[in-house]
Amino acid sequence: xxxxxxxxxxxxxxxxxxxxxxxxxxxxxxxxxxxxxxxxxxxxxxxxxxxxxxxxxxxxxxxxxxxxxxxxxxxxxxxxxxxxxxxxxxxxxxxxxxxxxxxxxxxxxxxxxxxxxxxxxxxxxxxxxxxxxxxxxxxxxxxxxxxxxxxxxxxxxxxxxxxxxxxxxxxxxxxxxxxxxxxxxxxxxxxxxxxxxxxxxxxxxxxxxxx
Length: 211
Prior knowledge:
Blueprint: E1 2-7, E2 10-15, H1 16-31, H2 37-63, H3 67-89, E3 93-98, E4 103-108, E5 138-140, E6 145-152, E7 155-156, E8 163-167, E9 176-182, E10 187-193, E11 198-202
Antiparallel strand pairs: 1-2, 3-4, 3-8, 4-5, 6-7, 6-9, 9-10, 10-11
């Protein structure tokens, strides 16, 4: 269908199809200049999901470097390190625990007596932790965490200067149970499974291993 239109005093023929195409193009251009409500809602929902997932991980990363969380992780790691070292080097390894200052050291054993048979004065022949070769490891508890209880092979070593837990080449170890206490009265019990030499964690005080 064609229509007449006066342009500059003259009549010209304009195609309805061309006008519709031009109008449609203008409408399309207008639509691309703004977001719809649905699009905005979708973007907001995606942002909310990302924040919900990431916040717990961020909090864990921040809290993981201090307090009880870090203490538990460090003790478990050094126990695993002592076990791994004993198996890989096929030797007996000592985990040296000093309850007073909250330190844990790993050293190759000299084959002396086990902690349960050493007298109160301690055996001077037992070696100090070796720092050579990168094969040993040292951990110190955070300032707000202390050792409340320490048991080795059925004896209480909490008040002693030093206690030693043996890890053997076959993957087994001495019996050990340590209770950690922080300034918020949170307690955690880390104990060793003697058959596998692996550290276990207990947070229920009614299930703590006797020391």
